[in-house]
Automatic annotation (TrEMBL), chains A, B:
Protein name: Proline--tRNA ligase
InterPro entries: aa-tRNA-synt_IIb, aa-tRNA-synth_II, aa-tRNA-synth_II/BPL/LPL, Anticodon-bd, Anticodon-bd_dom_sf, Pro-tRNA-ligase_IIa, Pro-tRNA-ligase_IIa_arc-type, Pro-tRNA_synth_II
An annotated Gene Ontology molecular function: ATP binding
Domain notes: Consists of three domains: the N-terminal catalytic domain, the anticodon-binding domain and the C-terminal extension.
NCBIfam families: proS_fam_I
Record localization: Cytoplasm
Record domain Aminoacyl-transfer RNA synthetases class-II family profile: where: 30-277
Length: 461, 461
């Protein structure tokens, strides 16, 4: 396998292939097949997000994938921002369609004409819905699995509120949810307020969650948008107030995608392969029996399997006789399974198991009666992954050389003025991503001397 | 509400609207919004199917939604069968695409070019995959929610085998799975072998599962197809045998869709609204407190809620103060919740609850300690729904007048000859659906006197 640090791009492509997350050979450019292992990882991630959204009382819906041209053209900034990326359906069977249909690149233009019908008065607010669907973008840039594709697995929340203040509180709820999701995925992030010229088409402002990939490039893995009444004015989404007048709703959105998978592949993996966060790993515990079978031994293996499963973990016993234990160890390490249990004759006779964690060297002996320790060991993997990744990110922000390489992101104290940002862009040949809200500090703009705060410059994916 | 028996079509549309399963007002023809209640019902159904397929060791995948024209044109019968129904994407952004892309109407043409890459030798067989996705058909007929739409929720299995015999065994596995699914959905069905001229484009033969809607029309709610090597020869899907030669795989598919929802709405519902099968009902148990609150009373209600939830049921307490208990009873009956618990002061004081089932009149008193009885009561709803629906179907097949109406399906003993079928079609003005394999009997063809068996004639949706 390629060395991750020497050629991240090659390593990334290779690990996705050999761990069978996705198959890139599908004959349509930029569209890949989700293989069982990759689909399971995505589905566990979806389910984590869905469960949280249910707890927080969002309702799950599913909108059609197609949007007519008139629906799109209601919001001018929005169509302008997306028109280069739309796939257009112009024919049905052998006929030309009367009205061209776009495949959704995101669902504002699909959802808001319906919100207009659903929201009548104060009692209908706040309205909070989400959907987990595929969206489609005609990407002309180089495509790459999970990072930039044309058929994208997408999670989107849309909310409507009776005031800007309530919409802002929703933005804070998103932040707390995002913090929970990324802890479970062991992903560190910068909360970056995109500059005016780079916000979502139609938004009042955009907060992006950027993470740092080992290539030194940043990857946007989530966004939350405050729309105010920009969309509701165009889509005519109003609510009747008690005094008889009516007012446009304030709206927000939260978007995440399969890029979450890209981030956890890139950030956690090593030269042995994937390392998957326990919360979403398709297999959390793999049991490798390392001796030939007799019935006592087999029943001990089954007993351990059941104990682990009944503790609530996704467990798999690798009984394949065609491979050696050593080969299997390598395979499951490559697949990123966080915890491995070896059971040999000695273990069975002493009612014990031998454990290896994907995140540290050495083996751990455990008595059968202490099997509840597995939870703590998986928690250790989770916190080790998160802490290691956080250190790399904060080193990068601080400009500290990590593992001999110079950090390829740069930060400057900067004001809000576009000219100041552009002058730094010209000097660094990096893009201004925005002000970082969860790292750095306030200070004087390094270009003009006005009030400013730490801003991120990087080469984004 | 419309009376179901007087105008089924109107009743069907109205119940879907008022129970908020889907919203038909989406501005693209034939595409509807899955509302939270409808989406939850579909998701529970998906999950039932997914769980079964996992048990039976299918692997879940997700293919891209788009298929290029050359991929489609590999199998001539297949493209011929679908070409009138394809949505074609011809533009990306402002450019014309080099190669037109079709939105999948089903996924043979997407999956089989990849199977060619995945299957090399005997060890790769049997290969059994499934996906739960949206498919798209440019329907020119009248569209109707869940029955005929242009953006269809679809569940499809694809398998490959080393022999026709093994593929036939797969067909039997499908039958057992189908029997399980329909028991849980309380849906009776006819297993109908479609005639040669009406089989799936590219199949050796097609078995359809047809059910009878209260309109008297039949609804195809599932199909299993034996492809033999028809597709594998065209898509070049071969496996190497031990003797060094290679052979084309034998393939099968199993398809189901949102029509399962159409069937359970139509078949189980009554003039009060939906009646949902307990296994998939979004809310299985609704608790309606029928007194004003004091803290003792509220804690009793919570205790009951927790007991029901901890028994594994989806339960909801309707605490809304704006409506009377009577109004709530009607609402939840309309929504089809199978079991309702009323708790008043008297119940709380006597540690008991009052239960109503959606499928029978009268109330059931239950002591708190007997709450495990709820499982049996939900089982009663399940078997009542299934038995009632089965009787209506078998009466229909037998030509027995049900509830005063003449059965609108007809059966004849018929041979395999197309001419015989066509002559009956002309006489009855109904379509020949095929021979029924799970009802009826063998005998002499009523047209020509040759060997035959019971065949179904109906007006299908």
């Amino acid at each position: 396998m390629e060395h991750k640090k020497e050629d991240f791009s090659e390593w990334y492509n290779e690990i996705i292939d050999i761990s069978q997350l996705t198959d890139k050979r599908y004959p349509v450019k930029g569209m890949n097949v989700w293989m069982p292992y990759g689909y399971s990882l995505m589905k566990n991630t979806d389910e984590m997000i869905r469960t949280k959204f249910y707890e927080d009382e969002y309702e799950e819906v599913m909108f059609p994938s197609l949007i007519s041209r008139p629906m799109f053209e209601i919001e001018f900034e929005h169509i302008k921002g997306f028109e280069k990326e739309l796939f257009w359906i112009t024919r049905g069977g052998r006929e030309s369609l009367e009205e061209d249909l776009a495949m959704r690149p995101t669902s504002e233009a699909a959802i808001y004409p319906m919100l207009k019908l659903w929201i009548r008065d104060h009692a209908d607010l706040p309205k909070r819905i989400f959907q987990i669907v595929q969206v489609y973008r005609y990407e002309t840039k180089h495509t790459r699995p999970f990072i930039r594709s044309r058929d994208i697995h997408f999670i989107e929340c849309h909310t409507a509120h009776d005031s800007y203040k309530d919409a802002e509180e929703q933005m804070n709820l998103y932040r707390r949810e995002w913090d929970y999701f990324t802890k479970k995925l062991c992903l560190p992030y910068m909360e970056v307020k995109r500059p005016e010229w780079d916000k979502f088409p139609g938004a009042v402002y955009t907060i992006a969650f950027d993470t740092l990939m080992p290539s030194g490039r940043t990857l946007q893995i989530g966004t939350i948008h405050e729309y105010g009444s920009n969309f509701s004015k165009n889509y005519d989404v109003k609510f009747a107030k008690e005094d008889g007048t009516s007012e446009y709703v304030n709206q927000t959105t939260f978007g995440m995608s399969e890029r979450l998978i890209a981030a956890l592949i890139g950030i956690h993996g090593d030269d042995k392969g994937l390392i998957l966060p326990p919360f979403v790993a398709p297999t959390q515990v793999v049991i490798v029996p390392i001796t030939s079978a007799d019935s006592n031994f087999e029943s001990f293996v089954s007993e351990i399997e059941n104990l682990v499963r009944n503790s609530g973990f996704r467990v798999l016993v690798d009984k394949n006789d065609n491979y050696t234990p050593g080969y299997k160890f390598n395979q499951w390490e490559m697949k990123g399974v966080p915890l491995r249990i070896e059971i040999g004759k000695r273990e069975a006779e002493s009612n014990s198991i031998t454990i290896s964690l994907r995140t540290r060297k050495g083996r751990i002996k455990l008595n059968k009666d202490d099997i509840s320790q597995i939870k703590n060991l998986l928690d250790e993997v989770e916190s080790d992954l998160l802490n290691k990744a956080r250190k790399i990110l904060s080193d990068g922000i601080e400009g500290i050389k990590t593992s001999g390489q110079e950090s390829s992101i740069k930060t400057f104290i900067l004001c809000d003025n576009e000219k100041c940002a552009r002058s730094i862009e010209a000097k660094t040949e990096l893009d201004m991503m925005g002000h970082i809200l969860n790292y750095g500090s306030k200070g004087k703009c390094e270009v003009c001397g006005n009030e400013g705060r730490t801003a991120l410059f990087s080469r984004p994916y």
